[in-house]
Specification:
single chain, six-stranded mixed beta sheet
């Protein structure tokens, strides 16, 4: 064991003329960093317009009054920190254009690289390139570059992970203050971070108990309680969100959680997530072996670090399941970004120890990281070049085609958030159903509409009136033709005896009613191509259709009789 510890210590010494492996590692790390930085710059240049979640954030910070601020705050799923930062960015004069706003996202995106690197170094990883590659190559890593809080949440949670370990190494007042700072800011950025902070604090407490340093146990537990207390003022927000989002509730089982997590780490749609599985197993086996076998005094610090990281890794996975299950929303892949970042840093530290036992291991690590990067380069590059929405281009197309007497229908209520930002044409527009506010995602207003009798009748009447008058109805978002000979029946006010508060059930019914009305009064359905300079991500890539009673002169891509 002494020889093993000595080999690890020698491996951490900087490169010299007799040890070219160190120079190879540094050169490789520099190249990988430049490559990852280039990806973030591509994201900044090619993301284009703001998709609806980003518009939601911008409209929130541009609230006209304190009352408006409070109302919108109940409609969002983040604590206050991100909005304060975004508001400061706007006040500095960077809120005039989409590209200027995205400058903040670029800073945060590059900050995730810096935070992952810094945290890995503080945990003892010599060159933490693996964690950077694993995180950046996940399908939705670049959501961290958007105008949402996920990127900043990743930065803060990994800094909290490493700063807690620095306190355990040497509990000076300065380190304690820095750690408490990152812990509290983490939970003020993302609610999900509170569950990861719980895992980090429990992992630190376990190390203190292992050392029998009873007084030091008070720091991680006290810091965790302080962080929990800091989110108590949001209880009124939790209540409002819970009441409004009852329409989006789904059942979360362990299987569905694992499935969504696998989607989040699936580096390429054509390949399974075996890379993560192999690295996670290696990490767990190595740390358990270190805890069981290491008995020499020189390895005590390594054993304590393994105990801290392994405990945190296991508990964080469990607590994040509790978070997703408690949330009970259909989990999106980017919800897992903070958890992915924490796991990536921990796994990188373990692999670093495994490979530093002897020089060939270090070369093998370089080769493996390079293979991972090359395997998923195309996927990452494709994601980096993608536009986040086509709503701005679609709106411009509508402004040139839709007449004043035409009628525009958005087939989902949440499309209205981004459409309201970009559409400046003369034709009237509405969503299914029509809401009083399109500045943010008002699920409370949607819930109220679901409780009404015949909530979309005004929209259906306007569709029929427009088509009977010889004008066009434009559809933003997909719609399927209703089955021939059938007549859809409108669902009664929610909660439905079978579907309960299901948003999906009511939206599907509203689409059937709309399709039936279009088929009854229209004669031709036309799909309009949307010109964009590059491909659009699935976040908000909406089709544009036009329904009319007779053939018009518009250039079309597809025509179908209704």
């Amino acid at each position: 064991m002494r020889n093993r510890a000595n080999r690890i210590q020698i491996a951490r010494i900087g490169p010299d003329a007799k040890n070219p492996i160190g120079w190879i590692e540094i050169g490789f790390a520099v190249l990988m960093l430049l490559f990852l930085i280039a990806l973030h710059l591509i994201v900044y240049r090619h993301s284009g317009g703001l998709w609806r979640d980003e518009v939601n954030s911008v409209n929130y910070v541009n609230s006209s009054s304190v009352f408006d601020f409070g109302t919108k705050f109940q409609s969002d799923s983040f604590p206050i920190l991100w909005f304060l930062l975004l508001r400061a960015w706007v006040l500095l004069g960077f809120g005039g254009t989409d590209l200027a706003l995205r400058g903040l996202g670029l800073i945060v995106g590059l900050g995730t690289l810096g935070a992952l690197w810094h945290s890995g170094r503080k945990l003892g990883t010599r060159l933490p390139v693996l964690s950077l590659v694993l995180f950046t190559m996940t399908p939705f890593a670049f959501i961290g570059d958007s105008l949402r809080a996920y990127g900043l949440g990743v930065v803060l949670i990994v800094l909290a992970l490493s700063s807690m370990w620095r306190v355990l190494q040497n509990p000076t007042p300065r380190r304690m203050v820095v750690c408490a700072f990152f812990v509290i800011l983490s939970v003020q950025c993302l609610y999900s971070n509170a569950f990861l902070i719980l895992a980090i604090c429990l992992g630190a407490a376990v190390v203190c108990l292992y050392r029998r340093r009873w007084k030091l146990v008070a720091f991680p537990l006290g810091t965790g309680l302080l962080a929990a207390a800091s989110i108590l003022p949001y209880l009124w927000t939790f209540s409002a969100i819970y009441k409004a989002h009852i329409v989006t509730k789904v059942k979360i089982s362990p299987l569905s959680f694992f499935t969504k997590f696998q989607e989040a780490i699936n580096l390429s749609k054509g390949l399974p997530s075996w890379v993560w599985v192999v690295i996670a197993l290696l990490t767990a086996v190595f740390m358990i072996r270190l805890l069981v076998k290491s008995r020499h005094p020189s390895s005590i610090r390594e054993k304590e670090l393994a105990l801290y990281l392994l405990t945190t890794m296991v508990i964080s996975f469990l607590t994040y399941y509790v978070f997703i299950k408690t949330l009970s929303w259909t989990p999106q892949s980017w919800y897992f970004l903070p958890l992915i970042a924490v796991l990536a840093v921990i796994m990188d530290r373990a692999i670093d120890d495994i490979c530093n036992i002897n020089p060939p291991g270090r070369i093998i690590r370089i080769a493996c990281v390079m293979v991972i990067a090359l395997l998923f380069l195309r996927t990452a590059e494709y994601s980096a070049y993608a536009r986040r929405t086509n709503i701005n281009a679609l709106s411009a197309k509508l402004e040139s085609l839709a007449g004043r007497e035409d009628f525009i229908v958005l087939t989902r209520f949440y499309y209205g958030v981004s459409f309201a930002r970009y559409y400046k044409g003369s034709a009237a527009w509405v969503t299914l159903p029509e809401l009083a506010d399109y500045s943010v995602h008002r699920y409370d207003l949607l819930k109220n509409k679901m409780m009404e009798k015949d909530p979309i009748d005004p929209v259906l009447s306007k569709i029929a009136q427009t088509l009977q008058g010889g004008h066009k109805v434009w559809l933003v978002g997909g719609i399927n033709l209703f089955r021939a000979g059938g007549i859809p029946q409108e669902l009664p006010p929610a909660p439905h005896p079978v579907y309960g508060w299901s948003e999906d059930a009511y939206e599907a019914n509203w689409l059937d009613l709309t399709a039936y009305t279009l088929q009854t009064h229209g004669q031709l359905l036309t799909t309009i191509p949307i010109p964009v300079d590059t491909h659009t991500s699935d976040l908000e890539n909406l089709p544009l259709m036009m329904v009319q009673t007779k053939t018009g002169g518009t250039a079309v891509q597809q025509r179908r009789a209704l």
